[in-house]
């Protein structure tokens, strides 16, 4: 059972959320920026091919990754994000070169 004080803090500071819609061959973000801290980045595959999501902050080394998401499915990547510009891409085959990339701004 979660203590009441912890539950109230979680309600007061819910994670930032952004949906990344995947189709052949593009990513569309539900919003261009989110607040730094706990975040949920949802990959929703509306395409006909499997896709994944890779995400790295410019100047950073850590790569956040989802598993391969099948058509019609979604996956919630949960992370604590630092402020900065994040490059997003699909790492399957040549999907990135075909346009499956985007930029997400994480602001203070």
Which percent range describes the beta-strand content?
Answer: over 45%
Structural class: mainly beta
| Count of alpha/pi helices | 1
- Residue share in helices? under 10%
Shape: globular
**Arithmetic mean pLDDT:** 93
* SSE order, one letter for each helix or strand: HEEEEEEEEE
Q: Name the strands of the widest sheet in spatial order.
A: 3-9-8-5-6
Keywords:
single chain, 108 residues, five-stranded mixed sheet, 1 helix
Strand and helix map with partners:
Layout: H1 4-12, E1 16-23, E2 26-29, E3 33-35, E4 37-45, E5 54-57, E6 63-65, E7 74-81, E8 84-89, E9 101-107
Parallel strand pairs: 1-4, 3-9
Antiparallel strand pairs: 1-2, 4-7, 5-6, 5-8, 8-9
Q: What this model shows, in words?
A:
The termini are far apart. 8% of the residues lie in helices and 48% in strands. Strands 3-9-8-5-6 form a five-stranded mixed β-sheet, with no helix packed on it. The chain has a four-stranded mixed β-sheet with strand order 2-1-4-7, with no helix packed on it. The model has no long low-confidence stretch (mean pLDDT 93). It has one helix spanning 4-12, and strands spanning 16-23, 26-29, 33-35, 37-45, 54-57, 63-65, 74-81, 84-89, 101-107. It has 108 residues and is mainly β.
Brief overview:
Helices cover 8% and strands 48% of the residues. The chain has 108 residues and is mainly beta. The longest helix has 9 residues, at 4-12.
């Amino acid at each position: 059972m979660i203590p009441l004080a912890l539950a109230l803090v979680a309600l007061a500071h819910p994670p930032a959320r952004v949906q990344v819609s995947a189709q052949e061959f593009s990513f569309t973000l539900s919003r261009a920026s989110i607040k730094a801290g706990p975040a949920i980045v949802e990959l929703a595959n509306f395409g006909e091919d499997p896709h994944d999501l890779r995400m790295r902050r410019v100047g950073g080394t850590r790569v956040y990754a989802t598993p391969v998401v099948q058509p019609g499915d979604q996956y919630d990547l949960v992370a604590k994000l630092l402020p900065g510009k994040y490059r997003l891409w699909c790492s399957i085959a040549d999907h990135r070169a075909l346009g499956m990339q985007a930029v997400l701004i994480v602001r203070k």
